[in-house]
Design goal:
By secondary structure, the chain is an alpha+beta fold. The chain has two domains: 4-101; 109-272, Phosphatidylinositol 3-kinase Catalytic Subunit, Chain A, Domain 5, CATH 1.10.1070. It is 32% helix and 25% strand. It is built from nine helices and 13 strands. Strands 1-7-8-4-3-2 form a six-stranded mixed sheet. A three-stranded antiparallel sheet has the order 9-11-12. Strand 5 (48-49) and strand 6 form a beta hairpin.
Length: 273
């Protein structure tokens, strides 16, 4: 599936809303939307700084992770990486942004998992046990595994959503989305890359688990590991196809190393079961 549009698109008509980083550090994630043939299309940019402009590469991370999710047969929101002209604070930028469609079906409304859990949980029921009771355990195990592979730092309770249809009295968990704060998201220079340890267990936010991506792997049952599709080293060529047109080769080299070495750790768990 084609997920990169390299031809420059004029998207200076979009209006951007600034959303502060959940971590509270400097910078913003800018979002916008448009309606095309009665379909709502959402757009987001990488990290933006009022003085330096667009400084992040979170949109590239979305494409890397979604390609990994495809290989692992995990349901997810599909993003397209678009080469675009945009205007922010009356200044023009040439950048790459992420485009996606609304994943809600007719009659559905969304609510964060955190809020839904607060409304519907039983006494002393953990978020993980709540998801198991709802039949969403495979989703959670897939999420924990992938979030380890890419070191997703931002899987808080609002980055997982539930879609409810009050008329049908049904609910379902939304496809996985929002993987930008992963991989090398804090690296903005070659010095940052040189200091980055691809296997370090950095502190993460995880609503259904702990602050350790490694420890969260222990929440996954042994029989689940046995059914995970095996990644091959050649799959990295699929994951990073054409991204050298968007981001530096040094970044790609280190992201390849990160995913592969973390997969080898997962594979060691698989083979020890």
């Amino acid at each position: 599936m084609e997920d990169i549009i390299t031809e420059l698109q004029d998207m200076r008509y979009l209006n951007w809303t600034k959303t502060r980083k959940s971590s509270g550090t400097a910078g913003s994630f800018l979002k916008s939307y448009d309606e095309v043939e009665k379909k709502k299309i959402y757009y987001k940019l990488s990290d933006y700084d009022l003085v330096k402009g667009i400084i992040g590469h979170e949109c590239v991370n979305e494409i890397v992770v979604q390609r990994l999710l495809r290989l692992l047969n995990v349901e997810h929101l599909e993003y397209t990486l678009v080469h675009a002209l945009v205007i922010i604070d009356e200044k023009e930028y040439e950048t790459y942004l992420c485009q996606s469609e609304d994943f809600k079906e007719k009659g559905e409304a969304k609510i964060t998992l955190e809020d839904y859990y607060a409304m519907e949980k039983e006494n002393n029921e953990s978020p993980l046990d709540f998801c198991k009771r709802k039949g969403w355990e495979k989703y959670i195990y897939d999420m924990l595994l992938v979030d380890y592979l890419v070191l997703n730092r931002d899987r808080h309770g609002a980055n997982i959503e539930v879609l409810r249809n009050k008329r049908n009295k049904s609910d379902r968990i939304a496809p996985l989305f929002d993987h930008g704060l992963s991989l090398l998201c804090r690296c903005q220079s070659n010095d940052d890359l040189a200091m980055f340890d691809v296997m370090e267990d950095k502190k993460v936010q995880c609503f259904v688990g702990s602050n350790s991506a490694v420890e969260n792997l222990k929440l996954i049952p042994a029989d689940f590991y046995k059914n995970i599709p095996a990644l091959k080293k050649t799959d990295l060529n699929i994951i990073f196809k054409d991204l050298d047109k968007v981001i530096g080769k040094e970044y790609i080299k280190l992201m390849r190393k990160m995913i592969w070495e973390r997969w080898c750790y997962i594979d060691s768990i698989r083979n020890s079961q």
